[in-house]
Amino acid sequence: MNNKLKELRTALKMTQADLATTLEVSRQTINAIEKGKFDPSLPLAFKFSRLFKLPIEEIFDDEEN
Amino acid sequence: MNNKLKELRTALKMTQADLATTLEVSRQTINAIEKGKFDPSLPLAFKFSRLFKLPIEEIFDDEEN
DNA sequence: ACTAAAAGTTAAGTAAACTTTACATTTTAA
DNA sequence: TTAAAATGTAAAGTTTACTTAACTTTTAGT
After folding, report:
1. Selection from A55, A2, A44, A56 nearest residue A19 by Cα
2. What does each of the 65 residues of chain B score in pLDDT, given as a tens digit?
């Protein structure tokens, strides 16, 4: 699944570690999701959504659309 | 996490088994998610969203908002 | 060029999503 | 009211999301 996390994160001038702390996950989790190694859980997707003030659908792109 | 799956599903006159087949998951998975036993993965949430033609946020309610 | 911070990656483990099988209970309809 | 369909539930297994720890590579600032 594609996502805009890196763009959104850098727009806020946050490091991966910053994001990890804010969202209460590990830095490796942020890195892996940004790099598309796996998808976030739905609750974590909601956390991204709230932080970036964007609907989940605008952050994550489920290609089979 | 709260959700409106049962209402949405019955509005379409589908059984849990119907939904399961359509979304390519097991009937037990549909049942468990409807009953709030666990949250769907993000890809499965997207499938619900497409089927019901509603944003993920209107189907699932992440209470800590 | 050097250094430090940030990002990337890997391994080994835990937790949660999801599977299959099986059976019990509830709902629906003839 | 009884039979079939639908729903609920549980156990045991697999897969995927996530953790910690450790190390390497890349990026940015002086």
Report:
1. A44
2. 999 999 999 999 999 999 999 999 999 999 999 999 999 999 999 999 999 999 999 999 998 76
Tell if the pTM clears 0.70, that is, is over it: yes
Nearest-CA distance B60 → chain A (Å): 9
Distance B40 CA to C26 C1' (A): 25
B62 touches chain A (CB under 8 A): yes
Q: Which residue range forms the structural domain that includes residue B38? A: 2-59
Distance from CA(A28) to C1'(D23), angstroms, rounded: 14
Structure tokens that stand for A2 in this block: 């594609």
Residue A19 included in any domain: yes
